[in-house]
Design goal:
The complex is a heterodimer of chains A (about 120) and B (about 250).
Chain A (H helix, E strand, L loop, with lengths): L8 H13 L5 H11 L7 H13 L3 E5 L12 E5 L1 H25 L1 H15 L1
Antiparallel strand pairs in A: 1-2
Chain B lengths: L6 H10 L2 H13 L4 H23 L2 H21 L3 H4 L3 H22 L7 H25 L7 H21 L14 H4 L10 H24 L5 H21 L1
Classes of the chains: A mainly alpha (about 120), B mainly alpha (about 250).
């Protein structure tokens, strides 16, 4: 069984999306944000639901139903927020990613790192 | 041209979704609606993972394993009582596993689709009944299309009856995740709407526990003593008994 604070790559994406969306994190917005973060990979809405359920089981996110809106045919949203354990797990993942990046830069050289940095800058606009 | 999904498609999607997530998933699909084709594609991609996720959340692997054993033992005992001809058949054990697997699938689906707030004593027995219905449907198809693969009707009826009894007893002893309010690690989604445990009197639980253990032990002992039992199956049964007794004692 996975440790509750160990995160897969897709779980990291979903947690980051919830964190970035703040008060507006629910199924549709989380899916859009995850799609944006995981470009050029396609992401299905079903995969996001499954991951949200798993994160909730691990106690990394909490959810609640909001009031129904006309835009959604009179149906409620399930909103999500990152819990303290989720923030901790995400921070650990970020630190690990930084270490990976440092190791790669050391092996591939600073020129390639600069080139990748430029490409990321362009993607962000 | 309306900006709402067609009512028929929406009704089908609503019927397929488990009640615990119907509201938000239907709302999300409605919000993303652009055309009937896009809505249908979205639903096809979203609904199966949602159902699988709900099954994962409601199913307890250990209890499912106990139920699988109880169901398979029921069909095995039915085959043994009918003379054991099916047990000596090349594919006999596999043919007996098919209705047991379908019944188990029905139990899992019923748990995933159950409304946690409305769980009652009778609903604990509903899962095995749904499973028996699924097993009957699958055997019906075999009886019509390829009778060689089907389980004989008498064995099926006896196996289903014993399976229903044992499976219901196991579910009353170990209620599904939604009924276990005391379990702190249970997802908040299940704890919040739950109206409480089915509230079975302790006397009935105790009687059921004893009855279930006696029935399982009787079936397995009779089978072990019979010359029709296969050596590999006997070893499997012999090793399973202490494990089941341990699980029952640990959880009771």
């Amino acid at each position: 069984m996975a440790k509750p604070d160990s995160l897969g790559q897709f779980e990291q994406l979903v947690l980051t999306a919830i964190l970035a969306l703040r008060e507006d994190a629910y199924g549709v917005t989380i899916h859009s944000k995850v799609r944006e973060l995981s470009q050029p990979k396609a992401v299905s809405l079903g995969a996001v639901y499954v991951t949200l359920d798993r994160l909730e089981d691990k106690g990394l996110v909490a959810s609640w139903l909001s009031d129904p809106t006309e835009q959604r045919g009179g149906r409620a949203k399930r909103c999500y927020r990152v819990e303290a354990a989720g923030e901790r797990a995400l921070r650990e993942s970020a630190v690990t990613a930084k270490r990976i990046w440092d190791a790669i830069t050391e092996v591939w050289g600073k020129d390639l790192a600069r080139e990748l940095g430029k490409r990321w800058g362009k993607e962000r606009g | 041209m309306g900006s709402r999904p067609p009512k028929r498609i929406e009704a089908i999607v609503a019927a397929l979704l488990p009640s615990t997530c119907r509201e938000e998933v239907l709302g999300d699909l409605h919000e993303r609606y652009r055309s009937p084709a896009q809505y249908s594609l979205d639903a096809v991609l979203a609904v199966p993972p949602v159902i699988i996720s709900k099954i994962r959340r409601t199913a307890d692997p250990q209890v499912l394993l106990i139920q699988a054993f109880a169901l398979y033992a029921s069909f095995l005992s039915a085959a043994w009582l009918s003379g054991g001809a099916l047990l000596r058949d090349d594919w006999g054990l596999l043919r007996l596993a098919a209705p047991a697997a379908m019944t188990l699938l029905g139990v899992m689906l019923d748990d995933a689709y159950a409304k946690p707030a409305r769980r009652s004593r009778l609903q604990l027995a509903r899962g095995p009944v749904v499973g028996a219905g699924l097993a009957l449907a699958s055997q019906g198809i075999f009886w019509i299309s390829s009778p060689d693969l089907a389980v004989p009707r008498w064995i099926f009826c006896y196996g289903c009856a014993a399976g229903l009894l044992l499976s219901s007893a196991v579910r009353m002893l170990f209620p599904p995740a939604a009924g276990q309010l005391q379990q702190v690690s249970a997802p908040a989604l299940w704890i919040k709407p739950s109206g409480g445990s089915p509230g079975i009197p302790p006397g009935i639980v105790e009687a059921l526990r004893v009855a279930a253990i006696v029935i399982v032990m009787a079936i397995v002992s009779a089978w072990l003593a019979s010359p029709a039992g296969l050596p590999a199956a006997r070893i499997f049964a012999f090793l399973s008994i202490p494990w089941i007794v341990y699980e029952v004692c640990k959880r009771a």
